[in-house]
Amino acid sequence: MKVKTILVSQPDPASEKSPYKRLQDKLKLTVHFRPFIHVEGVLAKEVRQQKIDFNHFDNVILTSRNAVDHYFRLCKEMRFTVPDSTKYFCLSEAVAYYLQKYVVYRKRKVYVGEGKISDLESVFKKFEKETFLFPTSDLLKPDVPDFLDKQKLNWKRAILYKTVVSDLSDLRDVYYDVLAFFSPSGIESLFKNFPDFKQNNTRIAAYGNSTLKAATDAGLKVQIKAPTPDSPSMTMAIEQYVAKQNKS
Fold first, then answer.
1. 148 Cβ neighbours under 8 A, 6+ residues apart
2. pLDDT tens for residues 94-135?
3. What is the mean pLDDT of the chain?
4. Where does 5-36+166-247 sit in CATH, by number?
5. Check: CATH 3.40.50.10090 for 40-163?
């Protein structure tokens, strides 16, 4: 069956240079975007219930823009002035660049990885006797905590925001040829919104092994998988599949 419509379970890309725009134009597709999940910040009292005192930490480990936003939001709400001496350990350049929204970059000590926490191993060793705060969502993959434990660092996790299922009730009678998912939470959202969802002729695209497992565990048949050696991105995987399907 040919593919004409795709729903991507993410926010609408801000840039006109999005690969989805190119995909849409090249294959003459209708591509819509809709986040199936969203982030909500926790309250200051919930942070206190976790026995978190920002005063007790020399350093902050930041792995996402959400972590940056909610760390500084709660600092403001809790009337905590972040010391100029605080050091920031950022997972990537994108996170470090975003940090400039809140601090004067050239006046702070910022250490930047290339996408993996292990990129910062040598820097962590320099400050192994200091304390580290790790702001996170309520959902957390084990790779960063495992690494921090392995380095025997004095660190503490602070859940500062939560991943919440979005209300998709307005999509009940709307049908797409392809639904693209990027996390197990997206699959969970689909079935929380539509417990009686039947796949029928809808093709499912899944990015990452955990998303693929969540989809198959939920009884979905996944036709489009990424990343793979041939299609390292979701858009490439969709393009290859659609080009084949629409050719016939």
1. 61, 117, 132, 134, 155
2. 999 999 999 987 778 999 999 999 999 999 999 999 999 999
3. 95
4. 3.40.50.10090
5. yes
